[in-house]
Amino acid sequence: MSQTLASRVSCPVFTSQDAGYAPEVAGFNVTIVHTPEYVVAAQSAADVAEAVRFAHEHKLNVTVQGAGHGSYVPVTSGVFISTRRMNQVSIDVASRTATLGAGVCWDAVVEEAAKHGLSPIAGSSTNVGVVGYVLGGGLGPLVRSHGISSDYVSGFTLVTGDGERVEASAEKNPDLFWALRGGKGGMGIVTEVRLRLVDLAMLYAGALFFAEEHIDAALRAWVQWTEGADARVSTSAAVMRFPPFDVIPPPLRGRTLLTVRFAFPGSSEEGARLAAPLRAAAPVYMDMLGDLPASQIARIHSDPSDPMPTWTSGMMLTHVDQDFASALLRHAGAGVQSPFLMVEVRHLGAAASRDVEGGSAVGGRGANFVVGLVGVIPPLFQTVMPAAEEGMRADLKPWLSPEMTINFMGKPRSAEHYDSAWPADTRAKLTEVRRKYDPHGLFAHTK
What is the pLDDT of residues 70-84, one digit of tens each? Predict the structure, then answer.
């Protein structure tokens, strides 16, 4: 059947016997190995539509992958559509709009927009795909000043479960537009997205690092500082256990540090004033906070760019206080043997709490903080890290929010866990939209 499929599209089609198969299905998390029956390396929306029709005719499920950061479960059957070749970026300066193919990563948009003094409201890792990220909402480094990344989407083009190409915007199929901004998956395969850009060329941004012996004081100072934080400032505090690898810069290699990430879209004078209490919290081990071109926004978090073993999970919080800091330090503080590479707390609220006109399916707007956990040691993925997470979750129960957001969930433990990323009324509406635009149930979305 692979020859039949290949005759219907204008792009490469691979099976497991082909040399191009493994590279095409590879994702960022190297512990997840996909082995689908057919791989369609789509180059156009027409390729995607034909692949979907083929899958429906032969009763095969459909999976889509762009940059490959969202894989938590191996795909072992069906038609696997790779969109990484659909990497066109077009900037309309007059309307401050970027039109992007399904396989585009944030770094390409950041680079192209910066040529015109513009910037997208991107994620913290600019090698992440734009489409997969905004389908889940998106809590980036400018989340308090500018809001959730999907709020800047002005339209989608996608292929539905019937293999039809449709538009989704405030004017066309508004129910689908609502669902695609935060509803994650199951509605169709996005082939193009249009984003509003903002006038932003410079930031006062970066990170402060505190040595292990000062983690307690610096974290507590950050928690207190967030109580009256300026709504234009987005920050997070992360305990990092840097492995002793050669790729890690020598000042960080093998150390446990607290890093406070800071982003202010304003002048260096005002930014320095706003950051002063954080600088004074404890002796600063490394000060990498200052004027930063918006084109270098990825330096704030400095997330890894090369594929690696990855385990992630998260939880949202209603608030934080000094009792919270004490609880978190018991799991991630100085001298603690934690299995996690990173335990991060991001400050939300401000612009992130305000929904867009017409509404969106984004979950978690009512939470004020989100905790992210990252592990990189595969032997710990199955039992040690989940057990450590559950222990932390139990201790943080007084601060846990009933809300969640899908991009920070990690691997869902069940369909019910996946559904918890949205409140009941949003979930019910998403179910209706999925049934309407994927009537055959081709598209997997509980991953």
Answer: 888 999 999 999 999
Q: CA of 38: how far to CAs of 8, 78, 125, in Å?
A: 13, 6, 30
pLDDT tier, 415 (very low <50, low <70, confident <90, very high otherwise): confident
Give 211: exposed, middle or buried? Use CB within 10 Å, 0-12, 13-18, 19+.
middle
Can you state the percent helix, strand and coil of the chain, rounding each to 5? Answer: 30, 25, 45
DSSP secondary structure, 301-365, as one string: T----S-B--EEEEEEES---HHHHHHHHHHHSTT---S-SEEEEEE--GGGGSPPTT------T
Interior/surface letters 325-355, b for 16+ CB within 10 angstroms, e for the rest? bebbbebbbeeeebbbbbbbbbbbbbbbbeb
pLDDT value of residue 413: 86
The answer to whether 246 and 159 are in contact (CB under 8 A) is no
Cβ atoms of 175 and 235 closer than 8 Å: no
238-267 pLDDT, tens digit per residue, is 999 998 888 888 999 999 999 999 999 999
Find the Cα–Cα–Cα–Cα dihedral 205, 347, 445, 430, rounded to 10°.
-120
Supply the DSSP string of 141-209, one letter for each residue. TTHHHH--GGGGEEEEEEE-TTS-EEEESSSSSHHHHHHHTT--SSS-EEEEEEEE-EE--EEEEEEEE
- Which pLDDT value is given to residue 447? 43
Amino acid at 442: L
Count how many residues are written for the chain: 447
Question: How many Cβ atoms from other residues are within 10 Å of residue 262's Cβ?
Answer: 27
C-alpha neighbours within 13 Å on the C-beta side of residue 283: 5
What order of strands is seen across the sheet that includes strand 256-264?
286-293, 202-211, 256-264, 234-241, 342-347, 369-375, 311-317
Residues 289-334 have pLDDT tens digits of 999 999 999 999 999 889 999 999 999 999 999 999 999 999 999 9
Containing 5, the helix (H) or strand (E) segment is: helix 2-8
Q: Which two tokens stand for residue 333?
A: 């503080």
Reported as type and span, the H/E element at residue 374 is strand 369-375
| Residue 98 host element (H or E) | strand 97-101
Helix (H, G, I), strand (E, B) or coil at 12: coil
Residue type, 59: K
